[in-house]
Amino acid sequence: MIYTVECSFADPRSEAEWNDFYSLEKLPALISVTGFRTSQRFKALSDGCPVYLAVHTMDGLDVLTGEEYRQKGGGNFARWQPHITDWHRNLYSDIGLAPAVHADELLALCASGPEALTRMGLAPLAMRAVALEKSPEHRWLAKLPGRNARIAESLPEGIHLYAPMTRQLTTANVVSTEEEK
User: Beta-strand (E) ranges in 65-168?
Assistant: First the structure.
């Protein structure tokens, strides 16, 4: 399943520190939770959507209700909570593993149907909300190769583009990193 977390951050003075916490501490903690498969973080290039997006692949909703998640990844935003705005969480039906979006690529999300992404020459993956907010009910996700970044200048309405802030972490990354220690 695909677990998305979206938000904006309202305190410019602490935003860089919050981003370091989220990217360098929270994502590695989440990927160490049994049932998380991938984690990657993005920043919006489009207006009209939350500024930050995290996309995770996980085994199912029970991962988020487990004690290991609470201990390692969930609920450790207390320091930052007063500054987090426009916060949304969704669990989408399985599309397999979330695609890894590399530094020279962009992620496109659309809730109005796959057609606009298909017209852009992309291969959208369909997701259906099955838990948490369940809104938007349907979303399509696609990778936009960096060489097509000019398309971003004239995006059809309803498509939001995101640049990766981190590489995609996977369970395999964590295992191989720990084995090197």
Answer: 84-92, 105-110, 125-132, 138-145, 159-164
H or E element, residue 57: strand 52-58
Torsion angle of C-alpha atoms 166, 158, 153, 117, degrees rounded to 10: 80
What tokens does 116 get?
A: 């606009």
What amino acid is encoded at 145 in this protein?
P
The domains located in the chain, with CATH, are 2-180 (3.30.70.100)
Q: Are the beta carbons of 36 and 30 closer than 8 angstroms?
A: yes
Residues 6 or more apart in contact with residue 119 via CB below 8 angstroms:
156
Take residue 120 and report the two structure tokens written for it.
């852009």
Task: Output the pTM of the full model.
Answer: 0.91
**What's the length of the chain?**
181
Q: Write down the pLDDT at residue 149.
A: 55
